[in-house]
Structures are given as C-alpha cells and as structure tokens.
Specification:
The protein has 481 residues and is an all-alpha fold. Helices cover 70% and strands 0% of the residues.
C-alpha cells in the first residue's frame, strides 16, 4: 500500500484512503511481514503531512515507533522519517528532541544483534540515527553539544572511519589539535586494515604538518606503529611520508634506510617504482655514486623486464662516469635478462657501446654472449616457455657476420648428417656381431702405421740359406707347369 496506489484508487476520497491504511495496519502482523512494514507507516504519516495535518502525522509516527518490527533498520527508518518531517517544517527543537529520545540507551544496554531484545531497546546503536544527530548538533547546537554526541558515538564503538575524520576535523577547526590527535588514536585502535588506512594517512599527515621536527621521536613511533601490521599493498604511501619526514626534519641517512626498507616490504607491483624513487632521492642527497649499490640490489630482486631496464640505466651511468670496464661488466650481467629475439633495444645499446668504447675482441665477445643467450632462450622455448616481451624480430645478416658464419657451419653439418642417415639402412641386421668392428679397427691400425712413415726393407737371400733356393726352384716348377 502506498499513497500512489491509494491515490489512484480513491482519488478525491481521503476518507477511503485513511480507511485503507488503517485496515492494512490492523491486518498485517509485523512478525510475519515479508516486505518493509515501516514503509507503510511512513506513507500513512506522509499522507497527513501532505494534507497539512501535522498533528495527525505526528500521531501516526508515535504509533509507528512502538511497532515491534522484525529488524532494527525498519524502526530506524521510521525515526529518521519522523525527524525529517519536523525539519521540513522548521521544527528544529522537536527534531533534536526526537533524536535524543531515539538514541537514549536503556539501562541494561543490550547488543545491537541480540534478537531476544525488542528493536526499541536496540535502536539506540543505529549509526544512521547518530550520524543525523551529529550533523544536526553541528548545524544547530553548540560546540560542546556536538562534542558530546561524537564522544557518545565513540563510547558505543559504533563509529565509522568517516565519523572519526569528521570529528577530528571539527576539533582541528577549533584549534583543539591534541584532542583531535587523541580521536585519531582511538580511531586507529578501533579499526583494522584496510579500513584504518585513511585514518593513518590523515593522522600522520596532520601530525607532521602541525609539529614538524619538534616531536620527531613521537612521529617516528607513530610511523612504526602504522607500518607494524600494515599489508604490503598499503605500505608505499606510508613509507613515502616517513622518508619525507626524515629528509625534511631528521637525518638523510635515516631517510635512505626508510627507502631501503620500502623496497623490501612494498607490494611486487610497486617495487620498481619504489627503486626509482630511492635512486632519485639518493642522487639528490648523496650523488650518483651512492646509487651503485641500489642498482645492484634492484637487479637482484626485480623481475627480468625491470631488471633489464635498471641494468641499461646502470650501464649508461657508468659510461657517463668513464667507468668503461664496469659498464661492460654490467652489460654482460644484464644480458641474461635480454632475449635477443625480443630485446633488440638492449643489444643495439650494447653494440653501440662496444663500437664507441671497445675493440674487436670485446665486440666478438659480445656476439658470443648474444649467441649463448639466444640458445638459452631457444631451449626454454622448446619446453613451451613463452617469451616475455614483444614479438620476435629478425636482424639483417650484414649487421652480424658471426651469426651468418655460424649458420653456414650448421648448414654443412646438417647436410653431412643427412647424407649419413640416408646411407645407413636402419632395418639391416648385424649377423657378424662385433667382428666387422674388430677388422675395421685392425685396418685402421695398419693405415695408421703406414701413415706414421714405416718403410719395408728387402731381406738378403743369404739370410734364408738353402731354404731360399728351394723356394725359388718350387716357384720355377710351378711357372713351367
């Protein structure tokens, strides 16, 4: 039942509309209602309000707040509508009195979720009522009355993070800074991560802005407390605030230690950016030479893509400083992260470096390493390991003569192996076992002996005596026959 439906059925018949609402209220059992019974009461009261009968509207609301609704939220909606009606007619004192009545706890203060208690005894813990009460006191009441409402919310432990922020802002506007910080402390103790994130960032920012370096140790304790159980995805902003505090009001050495901790504790997706900030601040505070250790640390812990990027920057830095050997060593170390099929930029950079600062031997060594890295990634590809970067590209043969020579050698070897495989009959059965191999070994030994330069000498016939003459006569007889 609503004013729209009853208005359509009984347009111009207010008595019938009232009778319909009355019949519906009497018929529906609050404990068995499936919809929002509170909306029926609100619409009934609004009908009288629209007809400028505020007394009757208030009477309907007074009856509605005594209905045993199933849920506390329904009773809270009735109270809110009641207060909003008074505000629409500029009855501000009545509205404040209603909210005070609705939020007054019973003597035994039952839990909000205790279903054994009636909704009337539990509605005092409804945050919507308290939020409207606080806004009304802030607009119409005094500073003291506003503080009292907010402190009651904190005492009931029903405050939201936004309530904490609003209360602290009110206190700060009145220059109650320490009291404001105490409210923040109660708030961060009340909530857990991630709800407490905004409270911590706002609290720390305002504390540093207020005291600067005057209460440095207290500020450090607050930052350590905030980082104690902070999830890694929320640590980055806190570390940046902490490091900024140390740079502006503390020691730069402490700031570098904070940045170093941040590179270890932030989320994986934030590590590269954190190293970028660390390197930039170290350069500004101590000079570029202080960044060498940071670059090495970044290349050890970051993924291949980011490690390759930091390696290139590190090598370029050493080149600018005139440390050619160090730069070459960095290129060699970084090459393990650069697949030649995808990372042409890195290899072109290294090739340009060797052309400018190297010699033929270093250039050949670079080409050898490139082939070795390509073979490593090709092996990975054979095990279905996909490349991590862009689509592979082919480089011109003229730019890489060593690669062309390697291709020709591989081509000759492949052809020779192919011919041998064609000459062999895989179906042939070896009947002689290992005799052929032994004969071949003996022939090889004979050939090896001839190859060593051994010459046969003619033996004189006198050595054999009469035996030689008999052999000669036998040969002549054989020939004659």
């Amino acid at each position: 039942v609503s004013t729209q439906s009853t208005g359509g059925l009984f347009e111009g018949k207010p008595r019938d509309i009232v009778n319909t609402f009355t019949e519906a209220i009497k018929t529906i059992d609050p404990k068995l209602a499936s919809g929002k019974l509170s909306q029926l009461w609100i619409e009934f009261a609004k009908f009288y309000e629209d007809n400028k009968q505020l007394k009757e509207s208030r009477m309907i609301f007074e009856k509605a707040v005594a209905v045993p609704f199933v849920k506390v939220e329904e009773l809270a909606d009735v109270w809110l509508s009641y207060v909003e009606m008074e505000l629409r007619h500029e009855c501000y004192e009545e509205a404040q009195a209603l909210l005070n009545k609705a939020t007054t706890p019973p003597p035994h203060k039952p839990s909000y979720y205790d279903r054994t208690e009636s909704v009337q005894n539990r509605v005092y813990r409804n945050l919507k009522l308290w939020s409207l009460y606080a806004d009304l006191e802030e607009s119409l009441g005094t500073f003291t009355s506003t503080k009292n409402v907010y402190y009651k919310i904190l005492d009931l432990k029903i405050a939201s993070p936004q309530i904490i922020l609003n209360f602290s802002e009110i206190l700060e506007e009145k220059n109650y800074f320490e009291e404001s910080f105490k409210v923040y402390e109660r708030g961060v103790a009340m909530f857990k991560w991630p709800l407490v994130f905004e409270l911590w960032t706002t609290y720390l920012t305002k504390f540093v802005k207020r005291y600067g370096g005057d209460k440095l140790e207290r500020a450090r304790d607050l930052f350590e407390q905030a980082l104690d159980k902070c999830p890694e995805k929320f640590t980055k902003p806190l570390f940046l605030l902490y490091a900024k505090l140390e740079e502006e009001h503390g020691l730069k050495r402490h700031a570098m230690a904070v940045y170093n901790r941040a590179t270890e504790l932030v989320a994986k997706e934030d590590k590269a950016e954190m190293f970028e900030i660390y390197i930039n601040r170290a350069t500004a505070c101590f000079g570029v030479t202080h960044t060498r250790q940071i670059y090495e640390q970044a290349m050890d812990v970051l993924p291949d893509r980011d490690a390759r990027s930091f390696g290139q920057r590190f090598a370029e830095l050493e080149t600018k400083l005139g440390e050619i050997d160090r730069a070459r060593t960095i290129y060699i170390h970084t090459s393990q992260f650069a697949d030649p099929r995808n990372c042409n930029e890195f290899w072109k950079l290294w090739q340009g470096f060797e052309v400018s600062h190297g010699n033929e031997d270093t250039f050949r060594e670079m080409l050898r390493i490139k082939r070795s890295v390509r073979d490593k990634y090709s092996t990975q590809s054979s095990f279905n390991v996909p490349p991590t970067d862009a689509a592979p590209t082919t480089e011109p043969v003229a730019d890489n003569p060593m690669a062309q020579l390697q291709k020709e050698v591989n081509f000759v070897r492949a052809n020779s192996q192919k011919q041998e495989s064609q000459a062999d009959n895989p179906d042939e059965i070896d009947l002689d076992g290992g005799d052929d191999e032994d004969d071949e070994d003996e022939e090889d030994e004979d050939d090896a002996g001839n190859d060593d330069g051994i010459v046969k000498q003619v033996i004189p016939d006198e050595v054999f005596g009469k035996l030689a003459e008999k052999v000669a006569e036998r040969e002549d007889t054989t020939i004659g026959s």
